[in-house]
Amino acid sequence: MPLSLLSLNFAITCEGNELETYDVKQEGPNSIRAFVASEAGKQFSITYKNDLPDVGLFGHLYIDGERIHKHFLKPGRQRQVLGIRNTATSILPFKFQELELVDPDVENAPVVPEMGTIELRVFRCQVRRAEKYREYRIPDYKLHQGRVSERSKKAGWHHVGTADEIPSASSSARHKFSVDLKFLDPRDAPYASVKVFYRPRELLMAQGVISGDDVRSGNGNREGSEVNDRKRAREDGSPGPSKRHTRPTVKKEEISVLSQQIQALQAELNSLMDEESRPSVKRELRSPSPIVVGQAAGEVVDLTLED
């Protein structure tokens, strides 16, 4: 089932199947986070819906810390983001890929604290005026290149890349408008924020986010206890699991499949275990909001409205 917060619904669909969410936790009245299991080579899409009856939502979508989409959603409407727009009639679909680690002494690769995250921030707004725009312009959004420093401690992780180009709706069916919006939320306080941490399933199992029962039954949407919710943040920047699970039982025939990935993650897990007794403060690095307006201020925005 999708993640729901206030009047916002959010889901990630991978090749026709909605991804299960694990360790779901509401981190305040306007924020929710969860984990999903990613699989390298699989394409996926992101869907979000505005269930407010009379107020629009302006959404900003971030993947691996990069803003890759913005859209005004009318009351009661739903938006599906398949990938990065390449031309007026084609897109490059999202795809999970293996993350490449490079030697920082050889190549100047970033650490990227937000690697492995998909985040949607929405702000309530009302349309003051909308006028037909003269032409459709392709947004210049780019995903992260998928190369990070070995010091980032992200061995075995995934990143989001793109698959081969596919056709999209005809540009004649898309109406570009210049819209004067009145924002009802301050620029530093979204109406709702959804953050999903995606990791390989084997890593989530090793970290206790997915239990043996989850693997055998296929059940997700597991919520954590209040006591363990106060556990420290992981060294990689993602929150620790809010519910302690027992180690899953692994069959003999599964060991050969998982062993190579477990070995790749061993160094990272050892580091995490060394830090277990020392408390740390959860620190989340967020890029500044792209909306440079005050509360209840107006702004003229170029965007695509779907009929």
From TrEMBL:
Segments of skewed composition (Basic and acidic residues): 223-237
Q: Name one Pfam family in it.
A: DUF7918
Q: Which InterPro entries match?
A: DUF7918
Sequence segments annotated as region (Disordered): 211-255
Superkingdom of the source species: Eukaryota
Q: Where is the DUF7918 domain?
A: 9-210
Q: What is this protein called?
A: DUF7918 domain-containing protein
* Protein species of origin: Russula ochroleuca
Lineage at the top is:
Eukaryota, Fungi, Dikarya, Basidiomycota, Agaricomycotina
